Amino acid sequence: MSNAPLMKSEKDVSGGLDVIKVREDFPILQRSVHGRPLVYLDNAASSQMPRQVIDRLVYYQTHEHANVHRGVHTLSQLASTAFEDARRTAQHFLGAREEREIIFVRGATEAINLVMNSYGRAFIGEGDEIILSAMEHHANIVPWQMLCQEKGARLRVIPMDDAGELLLDEYEKLFNARTRFVALSHVSNALGTINPVREMVATAHAHGVPVLLDGAQAAPHIPVDVQALDCDFYVFSGHKLCGPTGSGVLYGKAALLEKMPPWQGGGDMILNVTFGRTTYNELPYKFEAGTPAIAPVIGLGAAINYLTAIGLERIAAHEQALLEYATEAVRDIEGLCIIGTARHKAAVLSFTLGDIHPHDIGTILDQHGIAVRAGHHCAQPVMQRFGVPATARASFAFYNTFEEVDALLKGIHEVRKVFA
Ligand code: PMP
């Protein structure tokens, strides 16, 4: 059932973005939930897909599907061309120097596991140290912990202050002769903090230590240039960037990727196989064993093209305006406490409301058609740091409107009424 179109207001044309027009690209935003217009504010978990991406997937499945890289027939060549076009698209999106620095994976989690299994197992050993931050997603903690258990290495953690900003002096102090790796979120999913990663990479490099940046929450929201950041690895997921699930990117500097052993064996990652010995394929195929997620990757290429046509600067400006508007508005709500008040934030609003459990907040908001996330956001150490079991989190995308922020505020007042 379609909802009445939202009224266009001046406020909706922030950052030069015509949000009402943009929303027409997203079929799912037209639906209702529990008889109310859907207000989708769970974008940090997964964002929605525009018709341009859906159409690209349908075209691929109806005109081009075949396995890639192996066939001489027409369909295989079409699929291979589309797949490799997506690689070039991702390369330009991240500002990578070379196409072969882009490895397609299932998502940010798989990308980090790839680096841990390949780089980590080859170059990190007993007594070595890995620096992480206190605000990492479990995807950027658990793989490194597994490596530490296997190798007898240890994790060192950069602390943060009450606003959710990393303590850079403490970061500097963590480096010593045993430091081998730094793994750091570009933007925190639980707090929204945008970390000063360029400076933090420079610090690590001054100690000769490579850095992986987890860009799962950054790449969809702010312009990223891996050469300017000078990071050694950068990872992100397609489904948070208006693309399909099952697609993601690992960027790595070619010199490092060349030195790293493959992490999975199989077809496509080889040049020559005998029972005695296998010669591995060149980059990027050395790290892409087996049939890849062809359709999701092609969809990811379409999603990147869609976002870049809008412009990441315009996206960031609109989302920032939504965040400021929402942050200002919730300040007046009695008992509401924002978790994560860093000076530089992406459009994530994590909060608690008195002693009302965040799951209750999420459930009641859902009754009003409003989708937010409630829980620990796969960042339990962040919850421990702030002494809360969970938060409710509204996370905005460029297709969200100020009216939707107003709906959220109204919804929060409804929650308060239920528990009054
Ligand atoms: N890192 C961060 C900061 C995230 O927010 C997420 C997803 N919530 C991930 C990593 C993992 O992404 P995925 O589940 O798509 O692999």
Which molecules other than protein and nucleic acid are bound? 4'-deoxy-4'-aminopyridoxal-5'-phosphate
The CATH superfamily of the largest domain is Type I PLP-dependent aspartate aminotransferase-like (Major domain)
CATH-defined fold name of the largest domain: Aspartate Aminotransferase, domain 2
Mean pLDDT comes to 95
CATH class of the largest domain: Alpha Beta
Helical/strand content category: alpha/beta
Describe the protein.
This protein has 420 residues and is an alpha/beta fold. The chain folds into two domains: 8-50 and 312-418, Alpha-Beta Complex (Aspartate Aminotransferase, domain 1), CATH 3.90.1150.10; 53-309, Type I PLP-dependent aspartate aminotransferase-like (Major domain) (Aspartate Aminotransferase, domain 2), CATH 3.40.640. 39% of the residues lie in helices and 16% in strands. It has helices at 19-23, 51-64, 74-94, 108-123, 142-151, 168-174, 197-206, 226-229, 254-259, 294-310, 312-330, 358-367, 380-386, 402-418; strands at residues 32-33, 36-37, 39-40, 102-105, 129-133, 154-158, 179-185, 211-214, 233-237, 248-252, 270-273, 278-280, 336-339, 348-353, 370-371, 373-375, 391-395. Helix 2 runs antiparallel to helix 10 and helix 3 crosses helix 10. The longest helix is centred in the first third of the chain and has 21 residues, at 74-94. The two termini are 33 Å apart. The model is unreliable at 1-8 (pLDDT under 50).
